[in-house]
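Possible regression after last week's pipeline update?

I re-ran a chain I had predicted before the update to compare outputs. Posting the input and the new output here so someone can diff against the archived version. Not blocking, just want to make sure nothing changed silently.
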Amino acid sequence: VFSDNYYKDKLIEYYLNPISLQNDLKFEDVRILLYMHLTGSPVTEKMVMDYTRLPLVTVVASLQKMKSRHFIKSIRPTQDDANASFSERYRAYYVLDDAKRIEDQLDEALKDYDTLRYQGLSEKEITTLKDLEKRTVENIKNFLRANG
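New output (post-update):
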């Protein structure tokens, strides 16, 4: 179980490292940008910590650095139905247009990642595998919501 995740993590690291070097960012900065890019909506420090498994001090430092480079912006969301997941004391961060070049690089890296992962599989097998992966993730999320 863990070895599968280990190898997937190593492969994504392989594809993200050049992006960090090309953009004078640390690897964790790129991981955070990847998460923000994939969610497509504002995220809190806690959400970033949960996804990346990085300590708060690292997340905060990374977000501040990317803010200073105008890659991201922070807002204090209002507590309404649209933002019910955000607490008033948390800032929400979202990606700015200045990070578009990096987001394009992330998209290319994800495409290369998938090309390698699905090498030798038919389109039908790829579709089936993606559907199964999505269902297993949903099962895990549902369990954690109910029991976490």
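Follow-up from reviewer: compared with the archived run. Helices lie at 2-22, 27-39, 45-52, 56-68, 100-117, 123-147. Marking as no regression found.
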